Amino acid sequence: MEAQEQLKQWISESSRIVFFGGAGMSTESGIPDFRGVDGLYHQQYQYPPETIISHSFYRQNPQEFYRFYKNRMLFPEAEPNRAHLALAKLEAEGKLKAVITQNIDGLHQAAGSKEVLELHGSVHRNYCTRCGKFYSLEDILNMDEPDGIPRCSCGGTIKPDVVLYEESLDQEVLSRSVAYITRADMLIVGGTSLTVYPAAGLIDYYRGKRMVLINKTVTPMDGRADLVISGQLGEVLGDAAGV
């Protein structure tokens, strides 16, 4: 059976689908992949991206952190693509139980997905490190501080609710992700290189026989998948879900 038809058949026969995705999910919405040719790892900055978006750098040099963060990690004009819409439709139909994402852009929610587990946080949530007051992405973008560092009305520095290098993933989100994957009768993995841990290790908890890997390039886990499809996520998922 042709791969796309196999995918459609498995989706029609499944009722506890879980999707696990990475940066490739959002590249079709104009958000660059960290490791893509035009991604963050190829930008000309004074420090490497891994250094700038680390917890220690944020603490020591918040001005440079925010200069990079605002220029290279915020894409407020980005819109959900066919892949996001396909997953939202499958959830609305009762087939898809959860989206587990490594992305921080909030596009799954914008497409209509309800159960979204954000392993690396979200740019849409920002908190004062002093008093805990919440600030939206719009608040951050509209602040015009002379040094570029967003500050709370109390004077404290505002930090995005994004997991930086050197920071741990939220254990509750991880636990819920493991529970969903363990119970899934179909696991669709898309747009991720499956090289970043501990997130990539989540697929070890899948116990079924319908693990589908959709990616434009080969991943270290291709040999473990029950079905591998090379292609654009929007096209593959969009056609499979009929959006």
UniProtKB/TrEMBL annotation:
PROSITE patterns in UniProt: SIRTUIN
Enzyme class name: transferase
Stated name of the protein: NAD-dependent protein deacetylase
Active-site feature positions: 120
Gene3D superfamilies: SIR2/SIRT2 'Small Domain, TPP-binding domain
Lineage of the species this protein comes from: Bacteria, Bacillati, Bacillota, Clostridia, Lachnospirales
Annotated residues for binding of nicotinamide: 34, 104-105
Function description: NAD-dependent protein deacetylase which modulates the activities of several enzymes which are inactive in their acetylated form.
Domain of life: Bacteria
Binding site for NAD(+): 23, 27, 34-35, 102, 104-105, 120, 192-193, 215
Predominant cellular place of this UniProt entry's protein: cytoplasm
Annotated localization: Cytoplasm
NCBIfam families: PRK00481.1-1, PRK00481.1-3
Family in the record: Belongs to the sirtuin family. Class U subfamily.
Catalyzed reactions: N(6)-acetyl-L-lysyl-[protein] + NAD(+) + H2O = 2''-O-acetyl-ADP-D-ribose + nicotinamide + L-lysyl-[protein]
Cofactor note: Binds 1 zinc ion per subunit.
